Amino acid sequence: MLNFVLCDDSQDAIDRLSKMLDSIIIQNRLSGQITFSTKNPFELLKYVKTNPVNVVILDIDLNNEIDGLKLAESIRKQDKNTYIIFITGHLEFGLVAYKYKTFDYIPKPLTAKRFEETILRLFEDVSDGNPKYIRLDNNKTIIPENSVKFIHKDGMKLVFTTDTRNYEVYNSFNKIESILPRQFVRCHKSYIVNLDKINDIDFSTNMISFTKNEKCYIGPKYKNNFMEVFNHGNFTNNYDSFDNAE
Questions:
Q1: Are the beta carbons of 169 and 157 closer than 8 angstroms?
Q2: Cα 91 to Cα 66: distance, rounded to the nearest angstrom
Q3: Domains plus CATH for the chain?
Q4: pTM of whole model > 0.70?
Q5: For 35-76, what is each residue's pLDDT tens digit?
């Protein structure tokens, strides 16, 4: 399920865009929903900081001290993987907009056909190749896989520590392991780490470090396998035979 948010200085434009997007999602049986819309860019930034957002659709001229380009820049600093789509009459900013890894830049007036082409292409991009998202709590929430630093088992819950925030879900390692990509490695009975996000490893203390001084541990019964995977990329025994290890 992709979560869409919308921002335009005109409520009429937001309402029209919402109806068009809902129609495209329903007619094409896409897994998406509009979770938030606003005329205030600061409200959008606040929402993005505390909620899972996959696609941001916005105008450039927001009649505010912060325009759509600055808004996109702020969003991109928080999350490198959020899809950004501009729908605007200011075509002169097209090249600047793509500086922020814009997925598409659609001129106004917006047509249903042009908008549908972009949305369908976006869903194709999400599904192409290896999975780009990890689905949580019965597919209601999806998070970019490369934003996850590590997963910590805390009682009946799993805590996903990401670049921007933590997500807590009631699940088990056994279930979540089946959907994780290969760079996620079990290093402890209570930790799975993303090899791509590791900052440093101290094998003398069995400590793995990430940005923001976040750390997790290497269990003694996982150490040899973890080192094999980390050093040589041998994923054969990544999760197997360790379910009851310490």
A1: yes
A2: 18
A3: 2-127 (3.40.50.2300), 145-232 (2.40.50.1020)
A4: no
A5: 999 999 999 999 988 888 999 999 887 777 887 788 888 888
